[in-house]
Structure formats: structure tokens, C-alpha cells
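Human: I wish I could look at a protein chain and see how it folds. This is the protein in question:
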Amino acid sequence: MANKIYFYHEPAFDFEDEREAILAPVEVSKKGILTQEQSYRLFRKMNCLKYLEYMEDNVHEKADLASAAARVRNVIATHNLGLVKNVAHKLRPYDQWDTYAAEEMICEGEFWLLRAIDCFNYRQHSKFSSYASIAVARKIMLFLDESKESPNQFPEDFEPAEPQDAFRWVEMRLGLESVREMIEKHVPFENAKRILGLRLGLVDESRWSFQKIAADFGGNEHATSVLRKFNYWCEELFGKTLSDKRAKE
């Protein structure tokens, strides 16, 4: 079943001459904060591309439009990563952080930054940074409350089971080279790229276990973060959660 496409529509999307202006390149610097005008134009462009994807019947054209929308989304996300760190710092000062706590909070914030991008109604001309700060802060606070009540690491012998048919589906329907290209195009965060690559066997010939990946990131306490990122991006890229059961292999 195809993934749902969420977007905000405006009448200008239906007129070719106006659409051409909306889809024109938006000049932004590689780093730094987006201006209000740049942010508005990028959100408008992303939602227009999603609308065109929704209306398109041709599978290949649909895929191209989805890729174009994802690239715009990644530009917005990349320029707002500092927002996640600032929110996390306000909720827990740096001198109270350890490496694991920082990684977990930033991971949680990144997830909800992307959700905020998808849900933001740019047509109201409000500031995305204000909207996203509130959304990210709420989710990080909820995460911090939950983490006090439950352990944030797997038992030593724990390894989530993954349905083998899910891996076969990815390989047969897409091919590993296509998967590698999808990850490079659509995943803006380097840690998430590495986790996907190691688990799907794109870095070397073997598929790493979650325990081994967690150790590569610094220890068993990172396993929750690794699993969260892997599940999230598999759902985003393939419409499948490849590791959604907690059981010993």
C-alpha cells in the first residue's frame, strides 16, 4: 500500500505559470539560519511538489517528484539542526550532559524536527522556528520523563528480530544500489546514514547486529538510539519498519 502524502494546497499550484515561479530554485547558503522569505519559499515549493506527486499517475514521474520534495525538506532540516541543539540545551544545560544523554536528546529532536516540517502550515506566514521549537521541546521533555522510568539500553543478549521477508522486499524491489542512492538523497543526518548502511549491509558485505552498531557508536547504552533511528528511517524510505519486534534471534 502506498504511503500517504501530506501537503497544504493553494490554488496557485493548479496554474502552470504560477507553478513555475513556485518551483524555481531558492538561493540559500550552505550554513546558517534561513530568512523568513527563504523559509516561506522552501515550504511552498515542498508542498507544491507533494501536491504534484499526489496528482501524478505515472510511477516514474511520481518518484521523481517525491525525490524533489525530499531534497527541499532536507534543506529545511539541515538549516534548522541548530534549533534542536538550542532547545535541548535549554531543557538540560551542557554541564549536565553525558555523551549518551546528548545523543538521545538530539536524536529525539531530529525526529520531531522532520515531523514539524511535514506538519507546518506555511500559509499562515508564521515563523517555522517558533513552531518547531515548541514541537521539539514538548517531545524531548516527554522523552526525558519516559527515560527516567525505563532503561535506555538493551540487555547484553538482546537483539531485535527482523522479518526476513522485509529485507528480501527491499533487495528484490529496489536493489541495494537503489537503496544506497535513496539513503544518500533523503537522509540528511550522517549518524542515521551510517546506521542504515551497516544494518542493511551497504558498508561491507555483512549486516551488522544492533549490538555491534551500538558498540561502534560508543557502547551498549546507545542501542535504543540506534534502533529508533533505524526504524524511523526505514519507515520513511521504504514504508516498512524492518525491526519492530523485541525478541531474541
About this structure: The CA atoms of residues 44 and 77 lie 15 Å apart.
